[in-house]
């Protein structure tokens, strides 16, 4: 039985992940931690969790816990992950894996040294719709893949417009802006489809001036087998101009799908378009958590590890490096 503890029981754990730990076979959630003890107790009460803590060390050292989910903002991921690994407890880390690639390396070195596995919450590697896209590519539905285009445009939040900045756009806490939070899923999924990125060039700007982090990113990147990627991410458009698309083009057709909207997957070939349902699960992290639990119980393998998660952080760091070098 995998007995989980959660460090950082905030919004992401309410539906996306937290309930899954008690629904997956061979798994149970027995403790949560939040610095605000009142909020930790409230979460534990609402989710029927037996224990709650206000200090991470108390949860890490709880003898009844043998695996830890780290769901704090990225600035504390490395600290908590390494402490958990040293305590002999496998870690499941929210994305992005850490504040930067250098911290990811530290986590992976600790994982290797202590022989304790690390996993990262890039859950699209386990969701049926995104596995369908991989299947369509691998079965030759669009032939040889030539290039992929990513577009993600989002409107600023009302909080950002009024200067009440969420932690996701404070680089000291998140690593960057919304690009780090949202594009990380897309870049990691492309790594899942095509392997590591080999070359990158980019242009990164802050256009709207609502915060110090980047709000516009455009990048070109190359995978193996001469597959080229292009991406444009903008977080200052009107709501009417929001967009969420990934389109993969090959010699025989294309595949179009979304990252966050769970729109139908559209395969277009000379025979015309064909749609496949991309259903949003009740708990989007359930499938990946199930694979992690099975692995920890001695079965199967996990597609999202500290090694793959670090590769995504490396790509993001490379894309934005000139922007943050100039801003110092």
What does this protein structure show overall?
With 328 residues, the chain is an alpha/beta fold. It has two domains: 2-123 and 285-303, Rossmann fold (3-Layer(aba) Sandwich), CATH 3.40.50.720; 128-279, Dihydrodipicolinate Reductase, domain 2, CATH 3.30.360. 34% of the residues lie in helices and 24% in strands. The protein has eleven helices and 14 strands. The chain has helices spanning 20-23, 37-46, 56-60, 77-86, 101-114, 128-138, 158-161, 171-174, 178-194, 286-296, 306-327; strands spanning 2-7, 27-33, 51-53, 67-70, 91-93, 118-120, 145-153, 199-205, 216-222, 228-234, 243-250, 253-257, 265-269, 272-276. Helix 1 links the parallel strand 1 (2-7) and strand 2 (27-33). Helix 4 (77-86) runs parallel beside helix 5, helix 5 packs antiparallel against helix 11 (306-327) and helix 9 packs across helix 11. The model has no long low-confidence stretch (mean pLDDT 97).
């Amino acid at each position: 039985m995998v007995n989980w503890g959660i460090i950082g029981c905030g919004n992401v754990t309410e539906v996306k992940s937290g309930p899954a730990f008690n629904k997956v076979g061979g798994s149970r959630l027995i403790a949560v931690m939040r610095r605000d003890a009142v909020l930790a107790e409230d979460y534990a009460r609402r989710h029927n969790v037996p224990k709650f803590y206000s200090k991470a060390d108390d949860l890490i050292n709880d003898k009844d816990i043998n695996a830890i989910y780290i769901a704090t903002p990225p600035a504390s991921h490395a600290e908590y992950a390494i402490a958990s690994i040293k305590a002999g407890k496998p870690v499941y880390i929210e994305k992005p894996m850490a504040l930067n690639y250098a911290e990811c390396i530290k986590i992976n070195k600790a994982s290797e040294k202590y022989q304790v596995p690390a996993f990262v919450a890039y859950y699209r590697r386990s969701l049926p719709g995104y596995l369908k896209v991989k299947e369509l590519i691998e079965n030759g539905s669009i032939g040889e893949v030539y290039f992929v285009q990513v577009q993600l445009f989002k409107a600023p939040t009302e909080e950002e417009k009024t200067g009440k900045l969420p932690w996701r756009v404070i680089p000291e806490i998140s690593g960057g802006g919304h690009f780090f939070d949202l594009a990380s899923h897309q870049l990691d999924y492309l790594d899942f489809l095509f392997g590591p990125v080999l070359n990158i060039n980019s242009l990164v700007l802050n256009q709207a001036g609502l915060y110090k982090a980047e709000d516009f990113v455009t990048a070109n990147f190359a995978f193996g087998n001469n597959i080229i990627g292009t991406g444009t991410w903008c977080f200052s458009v009107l709501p009417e101009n929001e967009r969420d698309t990934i389109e993969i083009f090959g010699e025989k057709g294309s595949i179009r799908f979304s990252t966050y909207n769970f729109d139908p997957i559209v395969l277009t070939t000379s025979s015309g378009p064909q749609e496949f349902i991309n259903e949003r699960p009740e708990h989007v992290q359930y499938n990946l958590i199930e694979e992690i639990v099975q692995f920890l119980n001695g079965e199967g393998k996990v597609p999202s590890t500290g090694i793959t998660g670090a590769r995504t952080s490396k790509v993001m760091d490379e894309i934005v490096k000139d922007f943050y070098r100039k801003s110092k």
